[in-house]
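Lab notes, practical 5.
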Amino acid sequence: MAMITINDDAWLHVDDTCCVLNKPAGLPSVPGLGELAHGSLAQQVQQRYADARVVHRLDMATSGLILMARGADWQRAYSRLFAERRVQKRYLAVVHGLLAQDEGQIDLPLIADWPNRPKQKVDTVTGKSSLTLFRVLSRDPSTYRTRLELQPVTGRSHQLRVHLQAIGHPIVGDRLYAPFHLQNESHRLLLHSQALSVLHPHTTHTMLWRADPDF
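Output from the prediction step:
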């Protein structure tokens, strides 16, 4: 697998507390196993800023906005904001099918699907509370697809992908959760972290970044 290199356009913001980047699809946020052990976004950022530390992650297949803290103190500060749900995130996705509702919420508890790792699954008995808000941006009857804005209130692993699959509208290009006959309808997962808003822990001003997807 060829390593994806972060280009200069991916760097959206740098200050003494954090870096914000627009991660390409197919690039792991952090080092993985085997051929994914090198070249992650975190490792590439640390080549430029050695004090950069992980605060949150995006799935390898997902593109879009990701924040890394500068140093241990700022990592704790930003991690606290994420844990307290004081960070606003909005995603854009293209899903199979035409959603009937213009907006709504998906409230389904999730848990790791251990026999099928790294997949997650809905589990109404032992799953952790998981909530996603959605709004339809457009519907395309010719392709039988819907374009959505998504707001994850909680931040479970694969939450958006599992929630949309669970209501019968898997994300286009999802090779983990879409039915087999739909998995190759796109060269990539059509899921993008489009907007990120966070209260700057030093100045207390709200910082907002936006990066539109290429789909």
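Observations recorded by the TA: The first strand starts at residue 11 and ends at 14. The chain has two domains: 8-87, 90-191.
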